[in-house]
Design goal:
- It is built from 13 helices and 14 strands.
- The protein has about 425 residues and is an alpha+beta fold.
- The protein starts with 5 loop residues before the first helix and ends with a helix.
C-alpha cells in the first residue's frame, strides 16, 4: 500500500513542495498532534516557571487561535529560551546535560538572509570560545511557519576540516568531508595552495528558496589546539590539531509542535570525541598506526597496542587543551557528571531519557556507571532531531507516571503506539 501522509495530515500541510530536502526531513505530525504538543509544552513551561493559572489560560487561548488560523504560533522569547534548554535536557544522545540550565540562547528569528546568518554564526563562535572558557550557546533562527520553509544551515557543524581525494585515490584530511569539500570547491572555494590535513572548510546555507551558498569561517572566529603529549615528544611532529568549539548546525529543534530547522548549538569537547573517534576512526582520519609509531608501539609484538595508543592519545588531547586553557572534560569526569544529572533529575521527579549506545564512552566503557545503567530513550519533546526517518518520527509528549492512574498510563501507551503506526512509511 502506498503511503499518503495527507490521509491524516490534511491536504495543505507541508506537501506542496515534496522535492525540497528540508520538507522531506521534517516530522510528520497532524494538526491535533501539534496542538497536543503545544498544550503539553505550555503546561510544562508554566509549571517550571511558576506562572499563574490566569496567565496559562490566557496564553492557551492565544495559541489555539493562532494554530486554528495558520497552523503555527509564535513563541515568546522566554518560551523559546526555556524550550531550547529543555530540548537539551531531553536529548537522549547527549552525555553533558548536567549544565542544561546554563545554555545561553540567542533569539535570531528576525535574521533570514544567508549572509546575515553567517555573520551571526561568527559572533556565536567568538562568544562561545570566551577566551577558552567555553560557554554553551544556541542561536535560533526562523521556524517553519505552516507551509513556509525558512533558510537553514546544511553543514553538520560550522567548523569542519576539509578532506581531499587525490588522483592516486589517497585522501588527505577528514574522509567524512570529502564530498563536502568537492562541493565547496565546485562553488568557488579555493583551498590552500598546499592542502593540509587541517584546512578549515566553509559551511553551507540553503536559503528559503532552497538555493545553496557557502560561507568561510573567519580565522579569528575559531581556535585550533595543537596536540602534543607531555612525555612522547614525537607526537608533536605529526602536527595534529583540533578546533576548540564543536558547533552542531544541522539538527532540528522542536518546541511545542513548532520546528526550528536552523538552531545551531555548542557545548565543549570530551577528549574521547577527538582522541578515540575523530583522529583514529577509519572513516575519519584513520591515524591509529601513525600515532602508535610516534608512541614507539609495535603492533606485531603488542596485541594491546591499540588500547595503549588510545589511552595515550586521550592523555595528549586533554593535556593540550589544558595547556591552552580551553575547556575539555575527560570521559571519566563526563560520566560522573551525567550520573549527577541523572540523580538530580530523578530527585525532582523527572525521568531521564538516554540512548545507551551514545552515552557510554568509547574508551574504558565498562568502568563508567553509565555502562551498568538501565535507561531508554523516550524521545520526549521539546527535543532536537536529525530527520523524520532517523529519530523525528518517535518524538512526542511524555506525561510521566506521577499523578497518573493505571488507566491513564495504559491509555498513554496505546496512543503512543497509534501515533508511531501512523507515522510509519507504509
Amino acid at each position: 500500500m502506498r503511503f499518503d501522509p495527507r490521509r491524516y495530515l490534511g491536504s495543505g500541510d507541508r506537501y506542496s513542495d515534496t522535492g525540497n530536502a528540508l520538507r522531506r526531513t521534517l516530522r510528520l505530525i497532524s494538526a491535533s498532534e501539534r496542538k497536543e504538543e503545544a498544550r503539553a509544552f505550555l503546561d510544562q513551561y508554566c509549571l517550571e516557571s511558576g506562572a499563574t493559572k490566569t496567565f496559562k489560560n490566557r496564553r492557551w487561548s492565544e495559541i489555539r487561535r493562532e494554530l486554528a488560523a495558520a497552523k503555527f504560533y509564535r513563541h515568546s522569547p522566554e518560551e523559546l529560551a526555556y524550550g531550547a534548554r529543555v530540548a537539551w535536557r531531553n536529548h537522549g544522545r547527549c552525555v553533558g546535560r548536567l549544565f542544561w540550565e546554563s545554555l545561553d540562547v540567542t533569539d535570531c528569528r528576525d535574521i533570514t538572509e544567508p549572509g546575515a546568518m553567517a555573520d551571526q554564526m561568527t559572533k556565536h563562535l567568538t562568544s562561545a570560545f570566551n577566551g577558552g572558557r567555553i560557554q554553551s550557546k544556541a542561536t535560533i533562527f526562523q521556524p517553519v511557519e505552516g507551509d513556509k520553509l525558512p533558510a537553514r544551515i546544511e553543514s553538520p557543524q560550522i567548523t569542519q576540516f576539509a578532506g581531499y581525494r587525490l588522483e592516486n585515490n589517497q585522501i588527505i584530511g577528514d574522509r567524512q568531508n570529502v564530498e563536502a569539500t568537492r562541493m565547496a570547491m565546485s562553488m568557488g572555494w579555493t583551498p590552500p595552495q598546499t592542502p593540509t590535513r587541517f584546512d578549515m572548510l566553509p559551511f553551507a546555507i540553503r536559503d528559503a528558496q532552497d538555493v545553496r551558498s557557502i560561507h568561510t569561517v573567519p580565522t579569528e572566529a575559531w581556535h585550533a589546539v595543537s596536540i602534543a603529549h607531555p612525555t612522547y615528544e614525537a607526537l608533536a611532529a605529526l602536527n595534529l590539531q583540533w578546533y576548540a568549539v564543536p558547533c552542531v548546525s544541522n539538527m532540528i529543534l522542536t518546541i511545542g509542535g513548532i520546528d526550528y530547522p536552523c538552531a545551531p548549538f555548542n557545548g565543549f569537547y570530551m577528549a574521547t570525541e577527538i582522541a578515540s573517534r575523530n583522529l583514529v576512526d577509519k572513516e575519519r582520519y584513520d591515524l591509529m598506526s601513525e600515532i602508535a609509531e610516534a608512541f614507539g608501539l609495535d603492533p606485531r609484538r603488542d596485541p594491546l597496542w591499540q588500547d595503549t595508543t588510545l589511552t595515550e592519545l586521550n592523555r595528549a588531547v586533554s593535556h593540550s587543551f589544558k595547556r591552552d586553557g580551553v575547556t575539555m572534560v575527560d570521559h571519566h569526569t563526563g560520566c560522573r557528571q551525567f550520573m549527577d544529572f541523572y540523580h538530580k533529575e530523578n530527585a525532582l521527579g523527572r525521568n531521564v531519557s538516554g540512548d545507551w549506545r551514545w552515552l557510554v564512552p568509547p574508551q574504558a566503557s565498562s568502568s563508567s556507571d553509565i555502562f551498568h545503567l538501565k535507561i531508554r530513550n523516550r524521545h520526549d519533546v521539546p527535543n532536537y532531531y536529525q530527520s523524520r526517518s532517523a529519530d523525528g518520527q518517535f518524538l512526542m509528549p511524555y506525561y510521566g507516571n506521577a499523578y497518573r492512574t493505571r488507566r491513564q498510563q495504559n491509555f498513554d501507551r496505546i496512543m503512543r503506539r497509534w501515533k508511531l503506526w501512523k507515522r510509519m512509511p507504509w
